Amino acid sequence: MSDQLVFWGLAGFITLSSVAVVTVRNPVTAAVALVINLFLLAGVYAFQGADFVAAIQIIVYTGAIVVLFLFVIMILNLDPEHLRSPRPRIWEHLVLGVVIAGFAYIGYRFLDSLDVGKVASNRLPDNTYDVAMILFSNYLWPFEIVSILILLAIVGSVAIAKKPK
Amino acid sequence: MGLTSSELPFIVDLIATLSKIVVVFLIGLNVPPIMLWVERRVPALMQRRRGPNRVGFFKWRLWGLFQAVADAIKLIFKEEAVPAMANKWFFHLGPVFSVFPAFLVLSAMPFGEYIEVMGYQISLVAVQVNVGFLFILAMAGMAIYGVALSGWASTSKYTLLGALRASAQMISYEIPLGLSLIPIALVYNSLDLTEIVKGQSHFWQWGIFLSPLSFIIFLVCMFAETNRTPFDLAEAESELVVGFHTEYGSTKFAAFFLGEYVSMFALSLLCSILFFGGWHLPLLSRENLINLTGSVNLAALVGVGVLFLKAAFFMFLYVWVRWTVPRFRYDQLMKLGWKFLLPLGLANIAVTAGILALNF
User: Fold this and answer.
1) Does B152 sit within 8 Å of A28, measured CB to CB?
2) What whole-number distance in Å separates Cα of residue B3 and Cα of residue B129?
3) What is the ipTM of this complex?
4) Which residue in chain A has the smallest CA separation from B189?
5) Which of B8, B33, B64, B176 could bond to B341 as cystine, CB 3.0-4.6 Å?
6) What is the mean pLDDT of chain B?
7) B164 and B60 inside one domain
């Protein structure tokens, strides 16, 4: 019962903050809503017993990536008034409505086939060890390739950002 | 996850958890007043001055211990000004964002193994997390938002520059901090802080002997993470007034102090837990202590006292260093972090893992 309560509470606030990320005018507010969103998502992970994933989620996303977003927004010093887009036309509203309805339908079908209540109260035992075992045996090559890819991206961005001599 | 400890009945668990939360909160709240006093008396001692020694009750002056109370009252009753151009929401939220992660870090600290109350074993950690120090790193990382948002929301050049400096510094030093902890996890084979302390029951098994390089990296990062001298570039008085909290006054200013001192205390506790045997006395094992005192509870309390003494030493070290070492230059700070501590941390992991792989 309390599991369900916590899950639905977290889910509700995650939904609210996700909506805030895309609807709020001030970019800094949007970034902070994103932080709250990712933080609460880590809460869902932790509550299902995925401690390791939850901690990594906070370290990587809220602790590092969104901080960088926030930096860029703050340094650019964006004025919310300049970000105001022109009034959308009728057909734009229509397309948006169809897309939202489509997603709502997919979500509804997905929810129907998934027993959310059961998932919400499902709690795994301590599994940091298992995660490491799988990551470094079955998925060793994909893991290494991804890390090389990330390294390439870092080197590439430094190369692009460096001023030509 | 250990959000609930499974062995206890629900109501016992609830009462135990609530009382632990209250105790941890009170411990956190009591750190800044004591540190305010220490930060005036210790430099006075070092510079052969007297320091504030007058505030007390009638003829009992108690070495000026009540100076902290006077300071707190003064801070709380000061007038609060909000800059006209400030972003009101984030200006008010800034101090919240810097206090809340500090207390979350403190909540995951184990203060001892367990005490026995009415036949129930109650662990001395408010939030039992299996991935203990990852949780602590994660929460410590959240502290950046308090700095960045309050600096930005004040709409002043000094605060924005201070915030940028502070957050760049905190992000940079978080990496060597995390790297310095990995050898400890490898040596004690756990990410749970309680397990790590249990692995240090003998004096020669303390983290400082098994992984001395980690300790040095951790110590440097500890100062950088809390923006303390010699890494207090974020509030370099000669350049930025006081950095990101220039525009704050009264209780909000006090809140930044609270956050800073609580995170200093949490890192001092973490340092004692990871490298100095936590609640273990040197050369006296826990079993012997239980035999000597005759009860588990008394031994646990002695352990908590020992842990607090160790942490108090590191708090003293913060003050000691502050009045001994001058401030770094910003490029020196970045060079130290990225070009020295980061490779050193990586090499430390490789060497530790290599030795462990050869031994077993």
Assistant:
1) yes
2) 7
3) 0.78
4) A129
5) B176
6) 83
7) no
Tell me how close the Cα of A100 comes to any Cα of chain B, in angstroms.
31
Contact check, Cβ <8 Å, B148/A70: yes
At B35-67, the pLDDT tens digits run 888 888 888 888 888 878 777 777 777 777 788
Instruction: Tell me the C-alpha distance between B160 and B154, whole Å.
Output: 8
Residue B2, pLDDT > 60, answer no
Identify whether residues A119 and A135 lie together within a single domain.
no
A4: pLDDT strictly greater than 70: yes
Check whether residue A49 and residue A28 sit in a common domain.
yes
Domain count, chain A: 2
pLDDT tens per residue, range B174-187: 889 989 988 988 88
How many Å lie between the alpha carbon of B289 and the closest alpha carbon of chain A? 31
Compute the distance between CA of residue B247 and CA of residue B264 in angstroms, rounded to an integer.
23
Residue B353 belongs to what domain range?
80-359
| Rounded alpha-carbon distances, angstroms, from residue A88 to A36, A84, A92, B125 | 29, 11, 6, 55
Is it the case that residue B1 has pLDDT exceeding 50?
A: no
Question: Could you tell me if B340 lies within 8 Å of chain A, comparing CB atoms?
Answer: no
Give a yes or no: residue B15 inside a domain: no
- CB-CB neighbors (< 8 A) of A52 in chain B: 131, 134
Which residue range forms the structural domain that includes residue A145?
127-165
The gap between the terminal CA atoms of chain A, to the nearest Å, is: 65
Q: Are residues B70 and B117 in the same domain?
A: no
Q: Which of A51, A70, A75 sits opposite B1 (nearest CB)?
A: A51
